[in-house]
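Hi R.,

Here's the chain you asked about this morning:
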Amino acid sequence: MTYEILTGLVGFAFVTSITPGPNNLMLMASGANFGFTRTIPHMLGIGIGFTVMVALVGFGLMQVFDLVPYSYEALTAASILYLLWLAWKFANAGAPETRSAASKPMTFVQAAAFQWVNPKAWYMALSAITLFAPERDIASVLFVALAFGAVNLPSVGSWTVLGQQMRRFLTNRLRLTLFNWTMALLLLASALPALFG
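And the predicted structure, written out as tokens:
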């Protein structure tokens, strides 16, 4: 891999990982509602889960969309439904002192599994393999996946830190409720490209 391709790959990974999307919005909300430490499994689930997803897409999962008609549409529908459910959960999250014992941050496994119904994650994985590992040989696919893993985790972590820093301004129920509703609406807005793309 040439220096120019490597630079392009790292730049693409950074821009797509740091910009708003379902993962980052959920991490910001989790950082605000639960703090940084309790959100670490969520961050690791995204970073590792997405790295595995890129590798599997590169090793042949892309062809499923060509071989099975409507598979992409079914995936999009599942993604939208899941994002609607997550948005509802955000909007109805209570203040820390009123949350039930069942209210907790996303786990590692939940965050890793979410990558498979995250429209932005699919766009990123398909684009990364198409652009930077078009031959889909093992070495290139693994390199692209690992490059994303290295760039993704600190990028998404910055959104958790942002959410955690916002906690000082979310000290009353009204502000926290407004924040959670805003996050819910932004999460829904992040699904619009999948609906109309």
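Residues 36-67 form the longest helix (32 residues).

Let me know if you need anything else.
M.
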